[in-house]
Amino acid sequence: MSQSNKQNQNQEKQKHWLYREENRKTLWKIQFGILILAVLPDFFMHHHASFEAQGIHLDASPFFYAWYGFLTCAAMVVAAKLLAVVLKRKDDYYD
């Protein structure tokens, strides 16, 4: 085994277990498993519309809270990126 190979293995072992290559597939499988477990109860629940009197039945649709939460989170990320552009200062602002 070459010296650089040993150094690469030592560097890989020193990394936190979340950052190691061999754990990446396992972490993705765990993430998808949690996603399925979180969405699975939606198949067995009866949903009631909160604004039924106004004729709005959107929140009674299946997976409403899952996609609403995802879209809201994505919108917050986009808003944060835009806000960062507006509030950004030069590196030497305080100098």
Description of the structure:
The chain is mainly alpha-helical. The protein contains three helices and no strands.
Please give the structural blueprint.
Layout: H1 3-14, H2 24-39, H3 64-87
Count of helix runs: 3
For the secondary structure, the number of strands is 0
The geometry reads as flat
- Largest sheet features: none
As a percent range, the share of helical residues equals 40-55%
Short synopsis of the structure:
This protein has 95 residues and is an all-alpha fold.
Feature tags:
95 residues
